[in-house]
Amino acid sequence: MLFKFQKHLSENLPFLREKKLLLAISGGIDSIVLAQLLRQSGYAVSLAHCNFNLRGSESDGDEQFVRNFAAENNLEVFVTHFDTERFAQDNKLSIQLAARQLRYIWFHQLLEENNLDFILTAHHLDDNLETFLINFTRGTGLEGLTGIPVQNDKIVRPLLKFSREEIQNFASENKIEWREDSSNASDKYLRNKLRHDIVPILKSLNSSFLNSFQDTLSHLNQSKSLAEDASVLVYKQVVTEKENQKFFRLFDLKRLPNYEAYLFEWLRPFGFTAWKDISNLTEAQSGKFILSDKFRLLKDRDFLILEPILEKDERIYEIEDDAGIDFPIKLKLETVFQSDKTSNPAAIYVDKEKLKFPLTVRKWQEGDYFCPAGIDGKKKVSKYFKDEKFSLSEKENTWLLVSDQEIVWIIGKRQDRRFYSKNNTTPILKIALL
Amino acid sequence: MLFKFQKHLSENLPFLREKKLLLAISGGIDSIVLAQLLRQSGYAVSLAHCNFNLRGSESDGDEQFVRNFAAENNLEVFVTHFDTERFAQDNKLSIQLAARQLRYIWFHQLLEENNLDFILTAHHLDDNLETFLINFTRGTGLEGLTGIPVQNDKIVRPLLKFSREEIQNFASENKIEWREDSSNASDKYLRNKLRHDIVPILKSLNSSFLNSFQDTLSHLNQSKSLAEDASVLVYKQVVTEKENQKFFRLFDLKRLPNYEAYLFEWLRPFGFTAWKDISNLTEAQSGKFILSDKFRLLKDRDFLILEPILEKDERIYEIEDDAGIDFPIKLKLETVFQSDKTSNPAAIYVDKEKLKFPLTVRKWQEGDYFCPAGIDGKKKVSKYFKDEKFSLSEKENTWLLVSDQEIVWIIGKRQDRRFYSKNNTTPILKIALL
């Protein structure tokens, strides 16, 4: 295996030569074998071992084993301890995810502090196969069937083309010792079941199954890269971005026979996975929306609009006197002697004596109504929004000026006629949105 | 299951209602159950049974069973006999492929002759799962993992969302009888092994595995449609088609980080599968090429050129006299009194007395040389082609005019100076390419 390993590295990962490498080492067979292969091939490698303190004396035994291994082989070793359970609890993560985050943050720190170039891990082909099967068992998309890559950025996996069997053979031929890995993987049961019950059958049905599997992975990765290209190309054609909103033009989108596939691709990163709901929304009436954790997808006439869910500002801001306010919006109050008749939606003129101070500025609430200027009777604010075809985010961004529970102004939009100044004998207040 | 079946049809295949359906029926459990479900749901269905004569009396037993089933249920039935082995032999096909071709040709004929609308087959979800696993076991790309579709064109598969178990339960609950299917599938051993050894484990690891598998299929189909879009979009950007040649512009292509994935997508339909060879060819020197059964992929300066392999015409065509020839090219011979000095590559003037009739027209052969007009000495024709940067297909499409083994003209390209007419005392022959 040593020769094949060296050939693989010089052919496929030539850039590792002359670089300073940091090997993530657990003490298990895979990482110990990789350390030996690298050492025997003359690569400049340091070791990094995480003690996650999850298995008591066993964890400490692993640490000691790695320290000894490093000393015997004259290799630099970095060791760190993590309070993994606490970190998981504090950050609301699974133990596995917590351990993963902790170790990669630390590895990158080590890289930086010690001027090292790459992090190496000992993932091998059977790991990829098992992950493929786990994802397949649970149901997945293409991204679940493409395996981990040989390299992403600073992380390189030089054993990814090698099978577990090759690694085991190398270990036994070279009388290499390692620590039995009592893994913490959450999928341990599933992984073992697949490893012991399914993989041997697959291998028996095709004597070069692992080679075929590598071909499969490589084909699927190619298809994935094509699908990603299409996603980007078509996105540019049918989506407009404006501030923090994305407008999906349904007319253009729906000309594509597979437009649902695109929508799904684009919306998944925003936490939308309810496939049928998205599909139904494209046909729904304006104003319908679906929510993910942090985003809203709104049907608005010829668009789907994707926007972050802003926390609705429930606070009430008081205007004490003629000075106006600067926050959350800028209103200037000014006593004038005559209304300006030019129609300017950014300013209203009201009979000052009809107002009760302090005025308040707030968002609309269920049940709000007002007496819109220009028409008889009163109208619910929600009805006004609907008639004016306000989008959800427009509604939520609209402020009301209120005097003693009565709406004076849907700010910037429509005045309430109850506060009209009827004659010039009482003081007129000009309220302007700046 | 009847209710679920009816719901499925009205929701997902509403167009089948009121249509005349032709059900492909083997007599096995799947097709018999589908026939019952359709009949009980009030669909207008006729039956089509193929006797492939591959299993002697068993085949005849199947036929009789289907005839009886049709009679008992008052259904129209079409039956045909095939000499499958002979068809396979005559057409150099496997028995499976032969049977498949025979039956679909016949089904489509029946559709036409009897004014029927759709062919129905009884493929179910476990069939799709087994095919997925077979392809996965052998190594495949995305196309091998996307299953057969519910519909392509005239063929519809109404049971594709149903499991084998549902079908079996329906059969036993309704005391339906069927013929045990001793399938001829070439993958029978593999299929059975997967069905009995692997699928049960997968189902035990995830109690809704078949649902997850359906999701997987649907996601993979979406990704496939995106990958196909990218393939078409990028093809338009980097490929020029000219007659029967396709020019892949390497400069544009290689700006794509995943250009190899595109090349592979585009070239696979032409029988190119040697992945590394294609990749190497993009870096190879001009003139290198690789072959598939019927196509050649040629590196030619900044292009890869894909072209059909034309059978090289080895024949020799004789020109008996001044009349010229019409085939394989049109040459007109004419005695004139003076050379026309305007340079016209489509015509030459030669000393008629230097020619030996019959002249011949043929393609170039290894070892051919000539004395090119305008330079001293002689030159190999192959060297001339190379200097003039002829592509392989240009070389093969070039005709030579030959007089007694001596090349008179590389037709349309370059004259041989040995046949120049030197004075006006001997007759001049004008030879023109029309």
TrEMBL record, chains A, B:
Domain statement: The N-terminal region contains the highly conserved SGGXDS motif, predicted to be a P-loop motif involved in ATP binding.
CDD domains attached to this UniProt entry: TilS_N (cd01992)
Residues binding ATP: S26, G27, G28, I29, D30, S31
Residue ranges occupied by any Lysidine-tRNA(Ile) synthetase C-terminal domain in the UniProt entry: 359-431
Entry function: Ligates lysine onto the cytidine present at position 34 of the AUA codon-specific tRNA(Ile) that contains the anticodon CAU, in an ATP-dependent manner. Cytidine is converted to lysidine, thus changing the amino acid specificity of the tRNA from methionine to isoleucine.
Catalysed transformations (reactions): cytidine(34) in tRNA(Ile2) + L-lysine + ATP = lysidine(34) in tRNA(Ile2) + AMP + diphosphate + H(+)
EC number: 6.3.4.19
Protein name: tRNA(Ile)-lysidine synthase
Domain of life: Bacteria
Family classification: Belongs to the tRNA(Ile)-lysidine synthase family.
One cellular component (GO) term of this entry: cytoplasm
Location(s), subcellular: Cytoplasm
Keywords assigned by UniProt, alphabetized: ATP-binding, Cytoplasm, Ligase, Nucleotide-binding, tRNA processing
Record GO terms (molecular function): ATP binding; tRNA(Ile)-lysidine synthase activity
Enzyme class, first EC level, given as a word: ligase
GO biological process, one term: tRNA modification
Pfam family, one: ATP_bind_3
